[in-house]
Amino acid sequence: MGQKITIDPVTRVEGHGKVTLYVNNDGGIEQARFHIVEFRGFERFVQGRPFWEMPVLVQRLCGICPVSHHLAAAKAVDVIVGAGSGDELTPTAEKMRRLMHYGQIFQSHALHFFYLASPDLLFGIDADPAKRNVLYLAQENRDLAYRAILMRKFGQEIILATAGKKIHGTGAIPGGINKHLTIEERDRFLHGNPPFNIDNMIQWSLDTLEFFHQYEQKHRDFLLTYVNFPSNYLSLVRKDGAMDLYHGVLRAVDAEGQKILPDVDYHEYYKYIEEEVRSWSYMKFPYLKMLGQERGWYTVGPLARINTADFIDTPLAQKELELFRSFHGGKPCNHVMHTHWARLIEILHAAEKIKLLLEDPDLLSGELVREGNRQFEGVGLLEAPRGTLFHHYKINEYDQIVQANLIVSTTNNNQAMNNAVLQVAQRVFKGQKKVTEGMTNAIEVAIRAYNPCLSCATHALGQMPIDIEFVDVPR
Amino acid sequence: MAEIVRVYIDGKECLAQNGEYLLQAARENGIYIPTLCHYEGVKPKGSCRICTCKVNGRLMTACTTPIAEGMVVENNTAEINEMRKAIIELFFVEGNHFCPTCEKSGDCELQALAYKYQITAPRYPFLFPTKRVVAEYSRIIIDHNRCVLCKRCVRAIKDAEGRSFFAYRRRGQHIEVILDKRMSEQMDYEKALEAEKVCPVGAIMARRIAFTTPVGHRKYDKKPIGSDVEKIK
Ligand code: SF4
Ligand code: FES
Questions:
Q1: How many domains are contained in chain B?
Q2: Which of A49, A65, A183, A403 could cysteine-pair with A394, CB 3.0–4.6 Å?
Q3: Is residue B222 assigned to a domain?
């Protein structure tokens, strides 16, 4: 039977997964599967709970991006309490939630770029694993590591001020938010002692982009050829086509930039998106119905958002978007490693947005919650750091959840990640007799570009290291 | 004038009115004795045993024991505290208490006691009992997973004629709180909020938007349970 290699401990992805490579007689890779082998349970055990628990309960399926689940669930239960379908909250509630969300995007993207991705970029894919990590980064490039820590901290402090806790807060409640920002909090973020203030965070975001550009010039071929395949792209965009990470309409474009899902109301996502179950993975495979299972899969996340948006409504990020667009000839970018670039543009955008929000007096006072006629179903979508996140709940007449459906970002990227794994595996493993650590890391580099969160994707309860398994194709 | 008597709690001389319960006498003297089933203004029942002290060498519940001249009480001792800890742990393993997602978190007396006694994990195995969530009442939802059977709701929540809204049904390990069907129809929103407040845990939830108090502003976020008593000198 086949060979099995375990990479342990988990290497720089959020959660735990496994890759199986099917090897044919000539030693070539015939098929690659990226599995998540953990069990999903949340959609079942929320049944019977009062709907108002959802924003606080469902976020517990993840410790990495709980804010995204917290807010997506809150958006869904907003509909249930009759507070409107996403743009009718009080100005205070909407802006506090947005601040929380941009804080989350900022810290999560910073974590991914500096802690998870940059060691590969700085030290090389087949560098000694002892050096290919954030601790070595801290030794080699103190300044970068220092910034990474403080940028994360800044985002986390924003989350603390809006959600009440850095992880698993309770700020967003059905129909609104439970607190204002205090003047002290605002002043600290706006004018705090350098480097801990928003102007400096914007500057550091620009510097990080500059760092990427220098890297890109030296490693252009690597970034363009490493993983590269046509994909559809899906995300929310604001009604006028601007990038909007918190609310909007659902848009998808194909690899050429043609609109294949024309800005539809996300509350009816189930008319356009179907989920396929495959026996070998707990993670479902969503696809666009009108294109069918074969052709309907899509990518979500930073690259998708950059590809679907018409423009960005903050000036510095817009400038960077223009650079990105002109680099790719005005077409969607199908180079997976450029997801890192897209992510850094979003860090900058989030920082600019945070500044605008902090300057808004609505955060300091104003009505917090709105309620209207009770509905029995609610859908909430937003753009989580890793991509579009769907929460959908149905309740009975006693306020209890009777049905829940969650499609998380990583699940949306399932097929795309499998394609990326196959492409890299076919190239790296071709004609090789011995499997080296560098080769297995090469596969992970591709997976890492998507910044998958495997515990979210299966709503898992449990742990397991990433495995790479080789299986001989039976004759 | 009521007669003043002298009792000694952990060696401290305390003065209180004869006939007062030990719990009350201790509180008046700035000494905290933990409680769970006790509710201010309601006749004590002595069912949870958390308030147990050693009175003249015998274990007695402070909420139901009247004081008498010269009583010697052991309260905040290693032996008594260890026993209280065990009782709190038993509550946790006998129910399904998932604090992270409970709307009473931060305001819950059981959780506050667990923090006070620094419980990290119970010494007993979790029983994970199968319990119901009863949501059919018009004003409240009862989550039996969280009920600690303190009977505070039964004893405290009454209508103008003194009739209880709540009652116990079944016996032994199957015992549970119910809301009387006819009384349930009379229950208004204020009464529902009152019931939610009387419940020391999150078993009674008034039907409304919860989690409105931000983290940091909930009852036990700033000060541990009992600190209001201990600061009186
Ligand atoms: S419902 Fe609450 S108040 Fe009533 S017995 Fe149970 S824990 Fe006590
Ligand atoms: S408080 Fe005294 S027995 Fe419960």
A1: 2
A2: A403
A3: no
pTM: 0.91
Residue B230 falls within a domain, yes or no? Answer: no
Residues of A with CB under 8 A from a CB of B: 48-50, 52-53, 55-57, 60, 81, 163-165, 168-171, 173-175, 178-179, 369, 371, 396, 398-400
Identify the CATH class of A89-228+335-369.
mainly alpha
Domain-embedded: residue B217 = no
CB A156 within 8 A of CB A107: yes
Instruction: Choose from A51, A52, A159 for mutation: most chain B CBs within 10 A.
Output: A52
Give the length of chain B.
233
Q: Are residues B196 and B89 in the same domain?
A: yes
User: Which residue range is the domain that position B57 belongs to?
Assistant: 4-76
Q: Is B206 in the pocket of ligand 1 (CB under 6 A)?
A: no
Domain boundaries, chain A: 89-228+335-369, 230-333
Supply the ipTM of this predicted assembly: 0.91
CATH number for the domain including B191? 3.30.70.20
Report CA dihedral (A276, A279, A280, A285) to the nearest 10 degrees.
0
Cα A342 from Cα A324, distance rounded (Å): 8
For residue B209, the distance in angstroms to the closest alpha carbon of chain A comes to 6
Beta carbon of B201 within 6 Å of any ligand 1 atom: yes
Domain containing B65 — which CATH number?
Answer: 3.10.20.740
Contact (Cβ atoms closer than 8 angstroms) between residue A465 and residue A47: no
- List CB contacts (< 8 A) between B135 and chain A: 48, 50, 396, 398-400
Query: Which of B61, B73, B84, B90 for mutating ligand 2's site (highest number of atoms within 8 Å of CB)?
Result: B61
Quick: pLDDT tens for A229-286: 999 999 999 999 999 999 999 999 999 999 999 999 999 999 999 988 887 777 788 9
pLDDT tens for A284-296 read: 889 999 999 889 9
Residue A324: helix, strand or coil by DSSP? helix
User: Do residues A460 and A4 make contact, with C-beta atoms less than 8 angstroms apart?
Assistant: no
